[in-house]
Design a protein that fits this description.
Blueprint: H1 2-35, E1 39-52, E2 57-74, E3 79-83, E4 90-96, E5 99-105, E6 111-120, E7 125-133, E8 148-157
Antiparallel strand pairs: 1-2, 1-8, 2-3, 3-4, 4-5, 5-6, 6-7, 7-8
Length: 158
């Protein structure tokens, strides 16, 4: 009985070590791609818009077609440039383990955060989230007037 328990325990350790090394190797490759990125081109296909109603919060999910790119990325200095519909903005970059974060602060007040994760959606593309922290009492179609979250993926270039 003792031999069976030890053998089972040893087999479990070997399996866990083999799987974690394989997962670690894959994850480490993706981490290195993110950390060394010089450009990312993102496409987002799902949008969640949030709002405050009469004492209640709500969210609506809709399809989206939104693209965003960051270039001249320097994770050591924490800087990048952004391409978007409204021109350039100041961008702060931070790479941490399995995340590449971009924070855009606009002079009018809004804050945008884009996070790229070290998880592939398809070959060469990474899961990504883009949020917009913004509010305007008047809703104008085509402009952000409530908090928004976009879900999609990004291609990373070194």
């Amino acid at each position: 009985m003792k031999t069976l328990i030890l053998t089972t325990l040893w087999a479990a350790v070997l399996c866990a070590t083999g799987l974690s090394n394989q997962a670690f190797g894959q994850n480490r490759r993706l981490q290195q791609l993110l950390e060394g990125a010089s450009r990312v081109d993102c496409s987002f296909s799902t949008l969640t818009t949030s709002d405050w109603g009469e004492g209640e919060t709500s969210a609506a999910v809709t399809p989206a077609e939104f693209e965003l790119a960051f270039y001249d990325i320097n994770t050591d200095e924490g800087t990048a440039e952004a391409e978007g519909r409204f021109g350039a903005s100041f961008v702060v970059v931070r790479f941490t383990y399995v995340y590449l974060h971009f924070m855009q602060m606009f002079s009018a007040g809004p804050l945008y955060v884009t996070t790229i994760l070290a998880h592939e959606t398809t070959e060469g593309r990474f899961k990504a989230v883009h949020t917009r922290h913004e509010y305007s009492p008047t809703i104008i179609p085509g402009f952000t007037s409530r908090p928004e979250t976009y879900i999609g993926d990004c291609a990373v270039s070194e």
